[in-house]
Amino acid sequence: MAKEILHREVVIIGSGPAGLTAAIYAARADLKPLVIHGPQPGGQLTITTEVENYPGFAEGIQGPALMEQFEEQARRFGTEFLITFVGEVDLSKRPFILQTDEHEIRAETLIVASGASAKWLGIPGEAPAPQGLGGMGVSACATCDGFFFRGKSIVVVGGGDTAMEEANFLTRYASRVTLIHRRDHLRASKIMQDKAFKNPKIDFLWNTEVKEILGTPETGGVTGVRLANLETGEESTFDCEGVFIAIGHKPNTDIFKDWLEMDDVGYIKTAGRSMATNVSGVFACGDAQDSFYRQAVTAAGTGCMAAIDAERYLDNLPVPIASGEEITIEGEIVSADHEQITMPDGEVISNIVEEGEAAVGGD
Ligand SMILES: Cc1cc2nc3c(=O)[nH]c(=O)nc-3n(C[C@H](O)[C@H](O)[C@H](O)COP(=O)(O)OP(=O)(O)OC[C@H]3O[C@@H](n4cnc5c(N)ncnc54)[C@H](O)[C@@H]3O)c2cc1C
Fold first, then answer.
1. Of 146, 149, 150, 154, which one has the fewest beta carbons inside 10 Å?
2. pLDDT average, residue stretch 296-314
3. From CA 298, how far away is CA 144, in angstroms rounded?
4. DSSP three-state, residue 128
């Protein structure tokens, strides 16, 4: 069957906090954005329970309810949604082409808000409740959930920088943090290891694998973990009230790897002063380009920035790119010092304002 062809000015891949905030801004700018939900409509917050740090909700709000609010707000201004998955993209020229099973989507500007996924161990008890104890003592985000573990004994699984950072952060709340690692040494950088070793609230269990997370929703969630010593093969149970899996994140960016510049892990590189990628007209926001903050509010903030960048770009205004230069939709490049414009045919002209003329770029 022939695919349906859709052509839009702004297409947003992803409906987490970044994508839906971009949609709210683009829709209010009358750009009639199209949001593609992908495999997880509403994004990562739909698999959590209480969100206590999203501003504007003094009493906290359930993750799925928060994302319904985002979507409703985006719909109110005319955002269009598609429940489908983008499997392939061609970003060689505008309009960019996105392939889903049913559609060929042509986008004048593209906002990538495809997020990231925490890596999990794949052991029993780890899945989101009700299948497992995710959200009931199992977490992959200390900044998000550490607050709920005040005075409790918890374990952190991992041996890299993420695990050290999470373990150190969690000692603010937990009575005891036990770091469980499969090897007899850490992968983390020296400075992060030193901080963890010096922290009197952190213990280490070496050469140990977590086999299962124990507990039930009825008994209040996590009660312990089943461990195996990898040297002796001996199994044991370790009592705890929380388990933080800290073995890293994977950005959902594989489909862009032939087109967009990324770091070693796959986080998309953006310009710094804008959310522009290396492809003119493609912007990235949220966890897909943020390996550091990874919060709903920062994702929303960069979603707002990406939408404003797309608006400017469609209005043929210059948008900052990574080199410090600015680029327009017509391919004019304004030099970083704002003194020159390189035209699409290579001609270089002055951007110094002569009397009676207007400059391109700058404040
Ligand atoms: C369990 C848990 C609890 C958390 N708790 C908090 C908290 O309390 N406070 C907080 O601030 N943050 C919290 N976070 C972090 C927060 O959820 C993320 O930082 C935020 O959701 C990132 O938003 P995003 O829009 O960038 O990406 P995501 O929320 O990851 O959304 C990505 C979107 O992209 C879509 N997508 C991916 N690939 C494709 C594709 N190929 N085609 C189409 N669509 C695609 C997905 O379906 C999804 O809609 C938590 C995260 C987790 C996992």
1. 150
2. 98
3. 13
4. strand
pTM: 0.90
Could you give the maximum distance between any two Cα atoms of the chain, in Å? Answer: 83
Question: For residue range 145-201, what is the model confidence (pLDDT) as tens digits?
Answer: 999 999 999 999 999 998 999 999 999 999 999 999 999 999 999 999 999 999 999
- Topology adopted by domain 4-117+249-319: FAD/NAD(P)-binding domain (3.50.50)
Q: DSSP letters of 268-323?
A: BP--SSSSB-SSTTEEE-GGGG-SS---HHHHHHHHHHHHHHHHHHHTT--EE-TT
Asked: is 120-245 a CATH 3.50.50.60 domain? The reply is: yes
Ligand 1 pocket, residues with Cβ under 6 angstroms: 13-19, 36-41, 43-45, 47-48, 51, 53-54, 85-86, 113-116, 118, 140-141, 144, 252, 255, 286-288, 294-297, 299
